[in-house]
Automatic annotation (TrEMBL):
GO terms for molecular function: RNA binding. It comes from Diplogelasinospora grovesii. Residues 38-78 form the Exosome complex exonuclease Rrp40 N-terminal domain. The keyword DNA repair does not apply. Residues 169-222 form the K Homology domain. It is found in: Cytoplasm; Nucleus, Nucleolus. Gene3D superfamilies: 2.40.50.100, K Homology domain, type 1, Nucleic acid-binding proteins. Keywords: Cytoplasm, Exosome, Nucleus, RNA-binding, rRNA processing. Pfam families: KH_6, Rrp40_N, RRP40_S1. This is Ribosomal RNA-processing protein 40.
Length: 258
């Protein structure tokens, strides 16, 4: 569970006592090597020369001892593509009949999405996406010297697994920190984001897709519902609401809709 949240700045030294170590019983299991791996999330970099772990962005250092993971929770900053991220992008144009250029944020270069990177796509059945169309995709290749590459199909199964064009709905901007928390396993524990669960508990019917690049797509038959979901997300983000405050805010929003 998350235990520490000291504020750190780029270049700070991380107190070694904060770095989670494998439990003694873990070291005795067959998967000891896997369990001993320290996972560094956004905002941290391992310096190979010194072995030090250094923050690259200002924010709160979050340590999850159970999962042996660490990251920096930061509302600001620009999105930097990382392999495995699920993102929401907007098609800018098609190039050469082989790929789409997709915008992920105002501060990054366009990503590349091959026409064949969709479930069941072939030269005859590849999707026709007009400029402005939205896609839910996974980052398959990321290199600081190249444009990131996207895919809308699982390389393991050949299935879309929820990825692909997003039809209808609207997109709301949230911080990168909130986007990451929304993508975590849903939990109503302190420090997590349960606002979407609370909205569903109130009987609102909607679909969402969450992009690690700070985008949330919402679709519903009711415009009021889409607006309510967007307002709830942005309020949670701006005021850093606790789980209890998220519940109270949702109750207030529902009353205001009636």
């Amino acid at each position: 569970m998350e235990t520490e949240r000291p504020f750190v700045l780029p270049g700070d030294s991380i107190d070694p006592s904060l770095i989670p170590v494998p439990r003694q019983q873990d070291a005795q299991t067959q998967n000891s090597k896997k369990q001993a791996v320290l996972r560094l999330g956004p905002g941290l970099r391992h310096m190979a020369a010194t072995g030090a772990i250094v923050p690259t962005v200002p924010g709160q250092l979050v340590v999850d001892g159970r999962k042996r993971s660490m990251w920096v929770e930061s509302k600001g900053g620009r999105y930097v593509a990382s392999v495995g991220d699920v993102v929401i992008g907007q098609v800018q144009r098609s190039a050469g009949g082989d790929l789409f250029y997709v915008n992920l944020s105002p501060y990054t270069s366009n990503a590349i999405l091959p026409h064949l990177a969709f479930e069941g796509a072939s030269k005859k059945t590849r999707p026709q996406l007009a400029p402005g169309a939205l896609v839910y995709a996974r980052v398959s290749l990321a290199n600081r010297h190249m444009d990131p590459e996207l895919e809308c199909v699982s390389p393991a199964t050949g299935k879309a697994d929820g990825l692909g064009p997003l039809v209808g709905g609207t997109v709301f901007d949230v911080s990168l920190g909130l986007a990451r928390r929304l993508l975590m396993a849903r939990s109503r524990e302190e420090g997590q984001v349960a606002v979407l669960d609370f909205l569903g508990d109130e009987g609102l019917a909607f679909e969402t897709a969450i992009g690690r690049n700070g985008k949330v797509w919402v679709r519903s038959d009711s415009i009021k519902t889409m607006i309510a979901v967007g307002r709830a997300l942005q309020k949670t983000d701006e005021d850093d609401l606790s789980v209890d405050d998220q519940r109270k805010m949702v109750k207030w929003l529902i009353k205001s809709m009636r």
